Amino acid sequence: MSIRYGAPPPQRYSSQSSQYRQSPAPPPARTPSQYGAPQGAYYGQPAYGAPPGGPPAGADPQLWQWFSAVDTDRSGAISVTELQAALVNGFDLDTVKMLMSIFDTDRSGTIGFNEFVGLWKYIQDWQNVFRHFDRDRSGSIDGSELAEALRSFGYNLSPTLLSLVEQKYASGPTDRYGPPPGITFDRFVRACVAVKTLTEAFQRVDTDRDGWVQMNYEQFMKIVLSAP
What we know:
Elements: H1 61-70, H2 80-86, H3 93-103, H4 113-133, H5 143-153, H6 159-169, H7 185-205, H8 217-225
């Protein structure tokens, strides 16, 4: 018996799932629309001059301006605190740290311009994913929208697991007498990346692809602690 996993986000919003397929990046953004942010700049309008040294050859002038606006200490790189302060939708610190860990490819603890370009596109692409599944245009993802999104990514989670994901990444305290509050954009990204990370970690241990694994305590803790 085999079990199906998946990998968000696919290149198209398909409902088909696939077993142990590769994990592509979020679908490319067709238009630079910013969900819940001022048009034209996800980080806010640039307000500072260029960092020392000027833009790299061939750099997008607009992206360089935005990078310069975020780099408030003029160091030529963006720190965690600078990035969190610049994200206009109030990203929580855990999500900002996750983004830093993904795009800080040289492990310097900061984001340089080239890393920033990748981060910028990643956020734009996830914005389009979020907009697609926010059916009621409420600015957050509810339980049914989350289930639809994860199914389209290939993750056929049980109702119990879906409820746990929704409660864990809800944007506020859960009222036991009402439905969980919606998942905001930043927490939606983190939820999807967490499901992806945990699934891929499980796949590496599930060598015979039957959906069951045997592992020791240290292996289990490594998998859990690696999730965003």
